[in-house]
Amino acid sequence: MVVQTQSLEELCINAIRFLAIDAVEKANSGHPGLPMGAAPMAFVLWDRFLRFNPKNPKWLNRDRFVLSAGHGCMLQYALLYLTGYDSVSLEDIKQFRQWNSKTPGHPENHVTAGIEVTTGPLGQGIANGVGFAMAEAHLAATFNKPDFPMIDHYTYVILGDGCNMEGISGEACSLAGHLGLGKLIALYDDNHISIDGSTDLSFTEDVGKRYEAYGWHVQHVENGNTDLAAIEKAIAAAKAVTDKPSLIKVTTLIGYGSPNKADSHDVHGSPLGKDEIKATRQNLGWSYPEFEVPSEVLDHFRKAVDRGATYQEEWEQLFQNYQAQYPEEAALLSRMLTGKLPEGWEKALPTYTPESKADATRNQSGATLNALAGVLPELFGGSADLAPSNKTLLKGYGDFQKGQYQNRNLRFGVREHGMGAICNGIALHGSGLIPYGATFLVFTDYMRNSIRLSAISEAGVIWVMTHDSVALGEDGPTHQPVEHIASLRAIPQLVVMRPADGNETSGAYKVAVENRHRPTLLALSRQNLPNLAGSSIEATAKGAYILNDCEGTPELILIGTGGETHLCVEAGARLSQEGIKVRVVSMPSWELFDMQDSAYRESVLPKAATKRLAVEAGSSMGWCRYVGSEGDTISIDHFGASAPGEIVMEKFGYTVDNVVNKAKALLG
After folding, report:
1. CA within 20 to 30 Å of 139's CA: 258, 278, 463, 568, which one?
2. 202: Cβ–Cβ under 8 A, 6 or more apart, which residues?
């Protein structure tokens, strides 16, 4: 057979290609072109450089691999199968893109062991990789000792033209260059094809020069199709550069081996078709039937199992010696890896009484972060150039900068979208770090995709969003969030919290810190708010609870969130004095309330109490589920206005008088 004249390396590379080709064809859906073109660089990386243990995909000191061009995921699934991961069998390859498959249409970290992050939207993966590299640098600076490199791994990313077109990659890679993340190595699959056709239609910049300007070490492998030695040499050279991240531009032919579709958009996102697959098999000398892998190829790839076991055993022996010499550091690292929080950590949460001074919840958030920093060394985050406004600076813990990676304050710059994906990477690094990222609530528009992916990825990021309503005032409609809370509540698995005062702010952080597999978003006020009687850390976790009540079934329920809750409390007191049976409910989180059992939900919002008024300085969208057909809202379904915050709130109806009048009108 012609195939016998091929080297073992060529067989291994073609095995990757044809697993991808056959899986896409069987599914009648997918992207075969990238795996066909990128197979050589992926083979060299996984066979000669990547340190991993297929039988323990979560081993801490493994190198991280991210396929940022996630549409080409059959490349990664093929590698997982070939190298012996239990998570991907040949049957799983055959079930590519099918219901309940472990090989979905884009990689999902919580579905398939060995997938580090959920990539799909282009550019997210390279930004996640920056987060991985930042986590590695921080942990190495924190835990490593002379002769004990406990944290010592690389992050490798394969990205494509689309990733480099998306602005998020520029944000994240600019920061990576500033930070000098020398253990971040990106291989750029330079194939000049996107869905529209040739990238010449819209993308003609010199990407290498751009990355040089970012502060990266840049190389070019001109023949990524067959020059394995050049690929290996470039990766080795990148590893030798320790003070800069590296970009290796690898020029490839998309759909390599396809006689009629290579180097065209036809092979980008569609199956080759049976005739073209036959022609490709002939062209590449691959005489094996679909999904068949030669035994010598499988034997070679499966050597990764023994290598991985050795890597882990050597590390575990090193860790045992580390434990003996540095027991405190070892105990902390072990605790972080288990995800277990320190005993009694929640006692650090600040508590408040009605006598405590009125304050903005953003200030109370800052106090909480600083209180937690002392008991949670894994807390690690920062703001998109708004730390003084977001109140997110950890005092006394220094700035995470080049050569100062042990510090805990991340300075993201004005890079909200990049910040979002970086925080996801830190959360998914698997080392127990608890990242937080902060900006103004209105700028979640810039990073919505990253927030959404934190929910999809089950990444326990804490999103700290301040200036949460039109009450921020003079900056006007461009900075005043109106529809944002409603739109964020629409994201499945995201916990959105609008705390009403200090106790609820502490309660929100308790929820967020404990949610290691679900992101939490805190929407915090700029304006000062009173600390309410009856508010509590424990009650906040229920999502909604009774602040003030009446005898028997209430005639009216006032529901407040965030900075508007105190208006409900004051209005409720006035209405009660007039003989109206009023219940006041604080509802900091719809999602948490919906998680409670039906008995609890009925105890707070009984079906018999149909007259309900919800008060929130934002969109009315969605409130019908809680106020019902006989209820109403005081809400804002238009853009804001520029004026002092208290004036804006008054003009838009956020006064005790208006709540009282609206309630009376509701009661008829």
Report:
1. 463
2. 165, 194, 196
C-alpha torsion 159→162→165→168, nearest 10: -60
Beta strands at 379-383 and 246-251: parallel, antiparallel or unpaired: unpaired
Q: How far apart are CA 232 and CA 592, in angstroms?
A: 51
Pair of tokens at residue 450: 């990253």
Helix axes 124-143, 416-428, angle to 10 degrees: 60
Distances (CA, A) of 234 to 155, 218, 219, 241: 15, 10, 7, 11
Query: Could you give the CA distance from residue 658 to residue 79 in angstroms, rounded to a whole number?
Result: 64
39-96 pLDDT, tens digit each = 999 999 999 999 999 999 999 999 999 999 999 999 999 999 999 999 999 999 999 9
Sign of the four-CA dihedral 44, 49, 54, 55: positive
Whether the domain at 2-307 and the domain at 345-523 fall into the same CATH topology: yes
Cα dist from 90 to 79, 84, 160, 315, 335, whole Å: 11, 11, 27, 31, 36
User: Residue 272, SS3?
Assistant: coil
Catalytic residues: 416
For residues 649 and 651, what is the distance between their CA atoms, to the nearest angstrom?
6
Q: What is the pLDDT of residues 94-143, one digit of tens each?
A: 999 999 999 999 999 999 999 999 998 999 999 999 999 999 999 999 99
* Amino acid type, 153: H
Assigned CATH class of 2-307: alpha beta
| Two tokens, residue 259 | 């006689």
CATH architecture of 542-667: 3-Layer(aba) Sandwich (3.40)
Query: Residues 6 or more apart from 129 whose CB is under 8 A from it?
Result: 64, 66, 68, 155, 156, 157, 184, 186, 425
